[in-house]
Task: structure prediction
Amino acid sequence: MGSVGAKDVPVLMSPDGKRIDGRRADELRPLAITAGALKQADGSAFVEWGANKVMAAVYGPREVHPRHLQQNNKAIVQCRYNMAAFSVDERKRPGLDRRSQEISKVIAEAFESVIFVEEFPRTSIDVYIEVLQANAGTRCAGLVAASVALADAGIPMVDLVPAVAVGKVADSIVLDLKKEEDNYGSADLPMALVPQSGRLVLLQMEGHMTRDELHRALDLGVAGCRKIYDVMRQALLDKYRADGPAPGVAA
Amino acid sequence: MGSVGAKDVPVLMSPDGKRIDGRRADELRPLAITAGALKQADGSAFVEWGANKVMAAVYGPREVHPRHLQQNNKAIVQCRYNMAAFSVDERKRPGLDRRSQEISKVIAEAFESVIFVEEFPRTSIDVYIEVLQANAGTRCAGLVAASVALADAGIPMVDLVPAVAVGKVADSIVLDLKKEEDNYGSADLPMALVPQSGRLVLLQMEGHMTRDELHRALDLGVAGCRKIYDVMRQALLDKYRADGPAPGVAA
Amino acid sequence: MGSVGAKDVPVLMSPDGKRIDGRRADELRPLAITAGALKQADGSAFVEWGANKVMAAVYGPREVHPRHLQQNNKAIVQCRYNMAAFSVDERKRPGLDRRSQEISKVIAEAFESVIFVEEFPRTSIDVYIEVLQANAGTRCAGLVAASVALADAGIPMVDLVPAVAVGKVADSIVLDLKKEEDNYGSADLPMALVPQSGRLVLLQMEGHMTRDELHRALDLGVAGCRKIYDVMRQALLDKYRADGPAPGVAA
Amino acid sequence: MSEEVAAEILTTHILDLARSGRRLDGRGLDDYRKSSVVPGFVASADGSALARIGETAVLCGIKLEPGKPYPDTPNAGTLTTNAELVPLSSPMFEPGPPHPRAIEVSRVVDRAIRAAETIDLTKLCVTSGEKCWTCYVDMHVLDHSGNIIDTASLAALGALAHTTMPNVRFGVAEADAPLAIQHYPVECTFARLGEAIVIDPSVEEEGAANGRLTIATDEAGNVVAMQKGLIGAFSPDDVKSLVDRAFRHGDRQRRLAKDA
Amino acid sequence: MSEEVAAEILTTHILDLARSGRRLDGRGLDDYRKSSVVPGFVASADGSALARIGETAVLCGIKLEPGKPYPDTPNAGTLTTNAELVPLSSPMFEPGPPHPRAIEVSRVVDRAIRAAETIDLTKLCVTSGEKCWTCYVDMHVLDHSGNIIDTASLAALGALAHTTMPNVRFGVAEADAPLAIQHYPVECTFARLGEAIVIDPSVEEEGAANGRLTIATDEAGNVVAMQKGLIGAFSPDDVKSLVDRAFRHGDRQRRLAKDA
Amino acid sequence: MSEEVAAEILTTHILDLARSGRRLDGRGLDDYRKSSVVPGFVASADGSALARIGETAVLCGIKLEPGKPYPDTPNAGTLTTNAELVPLSSPMFEPGPPHPRAIEVSRVVDRAIRAAETIDLTKLCVTSGEKCWTCYVDMHVLDHSGNIIDTASLAALGALAHTTMPNVRFGVAEADAPLAIQHYPVECTFARLGEAIVIDPSVEEEGAANGRLTIATDEAGNVVAMQKGLIGAFSPDDVKSLVDRAFRHGDRQRRLAKDA
Result:
């Protein structure tokens, strides 16, 4: 998206419909999820998705800080999406910039849409997402990691929440953008699905899409989310089945 | 005041005693006040005064935030005087600078001197002033707007509080400085009067004035305040009489 | 310590074992302590130590701010070590930098190790240290001042806490570094002693010391602390004996 | 009656009304409130507009100042968008550092302006890699009676469409010139009330809503930005039908900013 | 007895005393406390002074550093005034970002210094539009027993009057030189206690006051700055008579800073 | 059972165990937990390592960027060390500005790196007084199960030892080159539990401790940094014997970072 006045734009789509990394338009990058990756957190997950590495942890339900945010009839969901200083090409100053604050807000709203918050009045469910290595799609990777972490923490929810970005690259609608596609493509549409209801709890978009392109993008994204859902379920199954190797950062 | 080492100083006073915009020494700039200019606020007013445009709103008496400021025997008056980024020549970074914080403090103290705060223990009366377009005298314009907004909100007060700045320009004592007079003049003396008691609840001064000049400046300011007082009363009358056009920003 | 890539390094040790200011290796700089130097504080002390000037004040036991830090079974000790903007060669921006925050933390921990905090549950004992003129060893000077201020405030403690830095300069282990020795020396080891128990409640070190050098440094520092202890006791005696000249900044 | 109980009763009432196709202020589900744009409201800005949608009012001021291009876009000027949800405008807003809500408003408006290529940023480059214009879009919310995003976006578009580049003041050219607008993006916001979805929600409806969706369209038939907000969800079919509604309402709102 | 009740009783007592022309510390209504200025208190500063009024103590340090003139005053150096009301100095002050009270002190002192043209800022210009001295006036409150403004102002004046420009250190000239002082502004603060108005209020009197007025005068017979503070009011006639009192006390205080 | 009571019972139990030379997790008083270093964990950094001590995990990333030398060290590059104790890693950590605890971790690691002359900062100078490399050492705590300082320090050393200078990206030289490491400082932390002193405390032991001491040693037999922390005290004899223990454990930990 940031290509106005830029210097060199790479070829994003080959004549035979292959993308810059050889994928087809509807193909996901490799996705690996480890549930229960941390010891201290109540629930956690580590996601490697393409060249993204994202850790998520969940604490709660627990006391609300700061106190005045407490609600008498339900739990609140607080989210902090943060990027490590070294996760991007140019070192990022520590702390939440405006982009991170916006993403934290929409992710918190997405989860509050599926968690049974009424069961835990006067508490907070805190979702922490740390992006350790970034390569486009980190908000979706963070949401996927956090969703598995919530399940790992035993937080009752309507369903797991898979997420993926769809984009427009050289006039094609493609699934799961990587960095070059995101930088030089002409649209980016991240979404998060509740498979059980078929509804979207996160939806953003920036770029140019006609009515028809948008329809196709939504359909492609929903299909992508259903594939991701299977990986998420399997990660939790693996964890429950084996209670296997001691929890810890996958190395 | 900021003229040390400056480049070009304009002629501020013509030989026949006319000021840079043609006014006499004791003449006010045009002043228009709309009471009840906003829908959400408990009370509000919009002031156009010369080339100043200032909006004020009042909320309260209401719960005190932050809580530890609450007083058991009276309401507290909190004021936030803020300048919009685009209200001045060079864009101002959003947020309160030191000048705005000082002005907020003296305006809050001015109002707490006339509001019957004992009637509303453990509450806050919040006064918000937004300077949208600035041309010298914004603290007085803000005070006038806020005073009408307080009355519009039905807050019991000793009296309305008119305010105006007196200055010294080319050795003359003049009423109601405009920007060039403020920048290149040699004294600025803003004041706010309680007409009922004849006492000043705001008084600041910077520049050079002899004892005698100061006496004349005080008298000129008090007379100016009394004229402004009439415009303020009329604005409230207009509002009460007609409950007329739906409240909203005067456009 | 900050000498990597520096321009001119002074001679720190003469052939006959004299230091840059003529002191022997185990000699302290002149130290003068005034207990009760301030009127408003519950306890206070002013320390002139070499070219350091440091003021300390103690308030409490009193209510805890912010409230959520309160502990039900003991007092908390809060410390704020701050340097005045003009206390160093290049003007320091007001406010606590990271170094000041670290020093505040280790000093608070040092005092909480000797104060009978269990006697004052749900309160705070607040220790403020203002460095007015700095010339190496300010954390030790601040600790000494604050310790006398705590005694002046009548806070029950195991003992007074003398403190001093030992360093390594031109391969010698020396007591009580001054600025040039600190800047161009090869090790700095500040410590604070509880004379009654013979234990250290503050200990930091940076530089290069062999096992043997470190042993000598610890012994030299403990001996130095015992000398400083005598000056501290005398300052309090002087205060109690005379209740003499009205409290106030030594001028 | 406690505040929470009052709010809950109002929510129930609004949802009941929506179920039968009605709204608290008498509008139909697809009725947009009366809107207006007053350009040139602030003389101290290089461009400005006061936009109103119903009783919601946002003042936007544009400032152009010399700056330096970003290293990765040496031939483009820069754009900085900021929204101030000042406590004057609503009992819900508190003084302090920018709330995530304010950040969201500014970022959503910023995305629409940027994605629609509203202004040609390369025209704001003065000397490649050295000097460019920085265009500040400052939105000041004055009265928050619901749907800030659309109102702020309308104010921003109205202000940009009436901006003069201060070439003379900064010695960039011999005469000032209007800032050229390439495209006119318009945001259109919807709120879900139960199974009904209303356009241009009032502040009371936002409080009762289970989901908000903003769709920005341009005059050429593109969707240029979207943002789902609040707790709640939309099906892909919901989104598709709302896109059609956003296109239908876009032209009217666009004209307000353009022809003001 | 609660803190509030104790404070109320003290206020009543102070007002009763004032009604009969007396004060808590035995002074008459127009008695200024004993004041002193110790210049050169801090060797690390380019100029410094410790001022005391009664038991109130403020230490001011001056630092001169190379800087850049403001674009609109290319031939003048710059002046930055800051007051730190550190929690060491009073149980009323808390750690944290500058409180409006601290900002007020620094701005009131700054206004007097600037308006009186205490130093000739054009003399702090090194190269027009390029290089100048920035003069930092940092006031550190050590003991707040009332009337910080006058004490801080006295410390600042004393420090400025004993400042050496560090020309050599920064390679500006071959020798250091004293900073030249043109005028000597002195702040004089009054507090209203009922209908009585006392000079140089103690901290207890400030707590009981209904209105505070500070008047800064120079040695040539000008009022150069004023600031009304606290909740309360003064009539124009009050102000006129306080101006006369401020002039009467100014010379003595001025001499403390000048001749220290 | 309240949290405080539970904590007190745990503390009593830990101290009881320590008295008889035992620990909660079965270790002996001088047993260090199993440690590991995975270099190159993050491809976006110029160097990185994930260090684990028991279940404590810290990820460190190194970034090298062009900067300007400090005026007083014109021939040296600069080093900036930062530790983020993100709330993901422990229920004890809260969002917000850096806590003194995080500042202490970064400063203690920084001191060891600097004092040991781990890297030769003069090699990071590109043009004297003009241009140098800034080396950012960012430590991100992922799982806090005790002894963050040692783990963070191990991650930092492992990352520095596997760092490539991005000469090509910034046009400094024709080829990238490994960052040269001169010395390998290792931190070793102890906790006092009553009169026993254990190495490498777990998070539960840190909660029960009366005093913590960190000693950093290099491979040449020097102590390069120390830090006493927490409430508690150590005798000089304690310190001397802990220095010996730190040397004994240093080489093993050093090899982890070096040979990873």
About this structure: The radius of gyration of chain E is 19 Å. Residues 236-258 of chain E form the longest helix (23 residues). Chain E has a mean pLDDT of 96. The longest strand of chain E covers residues 131-143.
